Amino acid sequence: MSAVERQLEDIKETIASEVPNDVSVSDVTYEGPELVVYTRDPKKFAGDGDLIRRLASQLRKRITVRPDPDVLSRPGEARDRIREIIPEEAGVTDLDFHADTGEVVIEAEKPGVVIGRHGSTLREITQAVGWTPEVVRTPPIESSTVSNVRNFLKQERDERRDILERVGRQIHREEMSDDEWVRITTLGCCREVGRASFILNTPETRVLIDCGDKPGAEGEVPYLQVPEALGGGPQNIDAVVLTHAHLDHSALIPLLFKYGYDGPIYCTEPTRDLMGLLTLDYLDVAAKEGRAPPYESEQVREAIKHCIPLEYGDVTDVAPDLKLTFHNAGHILGSAVSHFHVGDGLYNVAFSGDIHYDDTRLFNGAVNDFPRVETLVMESTYGGRNDYQTDQEDSERKLKEVINRTVDRDGKVLIPAFAVGRSQELMLVLEEAMRSGDIPEVPVHLDGMIWEATAIHTTYPEYLRDDLRDRIFHDDENPFLADQFNHIDGGEDERQEVADGGPCIVLSTSGMVEGGPIMSWLTHLGADPDSTLTFVGYQAQGTLGRRIQNGWDEIPMDDRSNGRGTLTLNTDVETVDGFSGHADRQGLENFVRTMSPRPEKVLCVHGDESSVQDLSSALYHEFNMRTFAPKNLETFRFE
Could you tell me if 35 and 152 lie in one domain? Predict the structure, then answer.
């Protein structure tokens, strides 16, 4: 009998001794980080609302209780009874029964109503029909991504269950080493923006944090071939943690599966869906531009299948000596500060990912309150000594001025925008400005993946700012459904119609003017002196967006738009700071200043060379802490 099997037998005995005599425990197994308990008495289990909580506290594990398949009521009968129990205002749209696990997936417009106070309705459902309810939200804006991901995972339930059981055994394996140390190896994004990737290494475990590309630098990928990473073989990596879905952090996650990786990816649920959307588009753009894609769509599906979604605040075992907790990073939907607790109180490391410290219209600001943190690995995108963005109110005022000035001369405002995050922030600003009369009501055209990304945002309102969530689901005032917003889905013909029409605003990907539909919009509007090209997001070095910001007006369109040569840019060019999803220099300093507890060491990463060095120096002088501006392929050891 293996160590894991002995452990499960001990746990089964402990559970059996704790539950009432008339409640059976037929099996206990691991599925990923969760302990799954099978019982022939699910109704009695559900009758004691504190039982699972007591067991989870005693065993220090996340517990899911499932009924044995042979004690379940028939789906037809269960369906009717469940609909009787759930209040009508929940808006149930689908019930999907899975006899192999005894789960019924309830899709509803208002999941909170299905769950009930402290889970009371869920317990009532189990008591009535025996099935274990799992609740998902019906997207208020139909999302093909969310639908496709859910249907795919439904089809792959058997294989996914095998994956989770294998991962569970790996997490709970017996520790083999008595050594105690922690190492962090930098595989990318050091003294540069993009290709974020790190290895967190203990004597027992290796975890890869992020695996992105570098905007404007084709072929520059993380140093995955080193022995600390995949150089020792794909089995070298125990787990992958994805902080958020932007391509400079997620683009090459599917490549790991091409190389033979077969382990878990820990991320939030919206990060999983957005990663699928953005990486498939990444392949599509590569094909359209005649570049060989680094992997196939099959590897994207494998990545999705291996995702284990975690919620903010849940402490989760990811290895025998490693616990992971996600906290809101305030950057984009589902973005997470990743906190690792190593060993039995040995060491604590937090990876910020990308953060926004202050609240925005879209998100609450980043969390920086932890039980313990010895070392912080922190982004420094705007870490330069002069990288102070205007505050939100001033930024919105300047944007409104640009729009009013352009519309007054019958021009069009063209905004290159990241599909995820900045576009939705701008939509909220534009919707309110038009509603209040600060700018005229003109069409706002959304091109590329922006509408689909917006639909995903409305699927996960619990990740949005509190008052926005309330507007969407309690007041029936979904600002994303305003009449002004138009999804461009007619391709070149519709773009030509817009270009020939009256004043309007166009939000289009890509945000750094590196391919995508923004190139088409430049051909339609770039020669128009009455229109304005307006940058609202970070433009990395080497990207066309940065070059235009720096004064380029001869735009190479070959290889970007069907070999049309060079375009002379005659539009006004404006930059409106303050809409970035990144904290500025002040925000980064405030994140560290108010961090509880304040870390002993900070590694400043994910910024141009001057930015990381400036921030590292400032934190050292201001807070008297050890700071570093590492290069790629450096290793730091902590004990």
Answer: yes
Residue 562 domain-assigned (yes or no): yes
Expressed as residue numbers, the domain containing 31 is 3-158
Q: Which of 635, 546, 637, 614 is nearest to 191 (CA)?
A: 614
Domain CATH for 291: 3.60.15.10
Distance CA 573, CA 621 (A): 38
Q: Do 327 and 336 form a contact (C-beta atoms < 8 A)?
A: yes
In terms of Cβ atoms closer than 10 Å to its own Cβ (0-12, 13-18, 19+), residue 179 is: exposed
For residue 163, tell me if it sits in a domain.
Answer: no
Q: Which of 526, 542, 575 is the endpoint of a domain?
A: 575
Q: Which residues contact 248 (CB under 8 A, 6 or more apart)?
A: 189, 193, 194, 195, 196, 212, 213, 214, 215
- Residue length, the chain? 639
> With contact defined as beta carbons under 8 Å apart, do 259 and 229 qualify?
no
pLDDT > 60? residue 331: yes
Task: Read off the pLDDT of each residue in 523-541 and give the average, rounded to a whole number.
Answer: 92
Helices (H) and strands (E) in the chain, counts: 21, 28
Tally of structural domains, the chain: 3
User: Are both 315 and 188 inside the same structural domain?
Assistant: yes
Q: What is the pLDDT of residues 558-567, one digit of tens each?
A: 544 444 578 8
CATH number at residue 145: 3.30.300.20
Model pLDDT for residues 126-169, shown as the tens digit of each residue? 999 999 999 999 988 889 999 999 999 999 999 999 999 999 99
What confidence score (pLDDT) does residue 99 get?
87
Q: How many CB atoms lie within 10 A of CB 584?
A: 23
Distance, C-alpha 220 to centroid of its chain: 23
| pLDDT of 339 strictly over 70 | yes
Residue 261 has pLDDT above 70, yes or no: yes
Contact 364, 330 (CB under 8 A): yes
- Shared domain check, 193 and 134: no
Distance, CA of 262 to CA of 167 (rounded, Å): 10
Q: How far apart are CA 329 and CA 581, in angstroms?
A: 10
Of 68, 81, 354, 53, the closest CA to residue 196 belongs to 354
Cβ atoms of 193 and 539 closer than 8 Å: no
Instruction: Compute the distance between CA of residue 424 and CA of residue 376 in angstroms, rounded to an integer.
Output: 29
DSSP state of 372: -
Last residue of a domain, which of 95, 130, 158?
158
Let me know if 203 is exposed, middle or buried by CB neighbors in 10 A (0-12, 13-18, 19+). Answer: middle
d(CA 472, CA 299): 35
